[in-house]
Amino acid sequence: MSGIKLSAKHGVNPSMSRCIICGGAGNEIILFGRLPGDAEAPRLGPVTSLEPCEKCRKQYLDEGVLLVEMDGTPRDENPTGRIAVLKNEAFNRIFNVPLPPKKIAMIPVEVSDRLGLFHHADNGTLDE
Ligand SMILES: [Zn+2]
Fold first, then answer.
1. Phi/psi at 83 (nearest 5 deg)?
2. Is 122 inside a domain boundary?
3. Alpha-carbon torsion (11, 19, 102, 104), positive or negative
């Protein structure tokens, strides 16, 4: 019936997902089941969603928008791991679009580069 292989030692072997902003416990439970070597899953697992924890949502997204940098092709995009929070007012001024309903916006690397959000230096050029 189920696709999960239980661990004899650790059962469903649960982890908490990690918050994309603070790296603390997120909003989801990950059931690893049996891992190689019957290892115990870490208490905190990977970031599994763009939704931050409740504390971060309250602290940062009441008055701001979470920008998540994405790389890849439109059909296969992945977060680069770089994030930023812009005040609502700054988001409106820079992007000139309505605030996203969940206050989370994904932006392509090219856009964050143009904005200088993360000071990319890996292409060997400085354009100031
Ligand atoms: Zn958090």
1. -135, 160
2. no
3. negative
The alpha carbon of 17 and the centre of ligand 1 are apart by a number of angstroms equal to 11
Give pLDDT tens digits for 109-118.
999 999 888 8
**For residue 102, what are the domain limits?**
63-115
Query: What pLDDT score was predicted for residue 118?
Result: 85
Report the number of distinct structural domains present in the chain.
2
Locus of tokens 């763009």: 50
Domain check: are 83 and 110 in the same one? yes
Token output for 12: 């469903």
Compute the distance from residue 99 Cα to the ligand 1 centre, in Å. 21
Q: Is residue 121 one of the residues assigned to a domain?
A: no
Find the 74 Cα to ligand 1 centroid distance in Å.
27
pLDDT, one tens digit per residue, over 42-83 is 999 999 889 999 999 999 999 999 999 999 887 898 899 999
HSE toward the beta carbon, residue 5, CA cutoff 13 A:
5
CA–CA dist 83, 49 (Å, integer): 13
